[in-house]
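Lecture notes, continued. The same structure-token format from the folding unit now serves as the input rather than the output. Read the line below as a description of shape only.
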């Protein structure tokens, strides 16, 4: 399958149409952005790392009964996916308090939450992806209540699979963001990506951050951290 036309360029990926109207090619870029793109950089090789990490995690989730948009990884930085109608809600699942949760609510950094918290954010860069609840989502016609319930349920199921997988690899899955789309029959498909750009991973032994917080917080070693995540995905230790 070949690229036909660039249909969207986002902060981290490009979307290309193909000869098949139902399939898109996703190209993973080396660009890194944070704080709604107020902070920008590039990291050579980051696109390839995220492309492989995300494909491996989507395969793992598919093996565990989660339906995804991924058809196949084409090469180092490209994936063939099903074109979906993206639901404009970002679903964030949190196991440990950090980031905006600690800032907004004063919950102490590093607090283990009593259960996995599911949050919804309205996917709109102009509004800086504000947090919303089920009722906002319905009033704005982003999704039906049944769909919202499904997004949270699938998000929690993904959390169960990934948390156990990474715990076996001495990584703590602190939190993550996922996006979903509707397939041809309205079925909900996990879409976009799951990578160190969209997850927080802490080394289970040292607590070291192995994700985009290294970029957000100027800790350095971004690529080394992403490589370490891929390495742990590949070889259980
Ligand atoms: N299977 C798919 N079909 C259609 N669109 C998709 C699919 N998977 C992901 N997308 C969308 O493609 C874009 C990927 O680009 P990228 O992640 O760089 O965007 P972004 O800069 O984060 O911006 P956005 O706010 O649009 O998400 C996103 O808008 C995402 O929602
Ligand atoms: Mg994105």
């Amino acid at each position: 399958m070949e690229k036909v036309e660039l249909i969207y360029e986002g902060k981290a990926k490009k979307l290309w149409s193909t000869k098949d109207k139902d399939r898109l090619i996703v190209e993973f870029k080396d660009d890194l952005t944070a704080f709604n793109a107020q902070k920008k950089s590039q990291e050579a090789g980051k696109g390839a790392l995220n492309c492989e990490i995300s494909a491996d995690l989507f395969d793992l989730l598919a093996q565990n009964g989660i339906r995804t948009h991924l058809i196949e990884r084409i090469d180092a930085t490209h994936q063939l996916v099903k074109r979906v109608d993206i639901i404009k809600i970002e679903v964030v699942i949190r196991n440990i308090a950090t980031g905006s949760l600690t800032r907004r609510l004063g919950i102490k950094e590093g607090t283990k939450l009593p259960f996995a918290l599911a949050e919804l954010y309205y996917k709109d860069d102009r509004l800086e992806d504000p947090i919303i609840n089920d009722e906002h989502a319905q009033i704005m016609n982003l999704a039906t209540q049944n769909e919202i319930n499904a997004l949270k349920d699938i998000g929690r199921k993904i959390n169960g699979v990934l948390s156990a997988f990474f715990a076996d690899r001495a990584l703590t899955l602190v939190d993550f963001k996922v996006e979903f789309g509707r397939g041809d029959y309205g079925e909900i498909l996990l879409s976009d990506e799951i990578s160190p750009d969209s997850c927080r991973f802490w080394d289970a032994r040292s607590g070291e951050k192995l994700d985009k917080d290294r970029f957000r917080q100027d800790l350095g070693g971004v690529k080394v951290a992403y490589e370490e995540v891929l390495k742990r995905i590949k070889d259980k230790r």
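Point for the exam: The mean pLDDT is 97.
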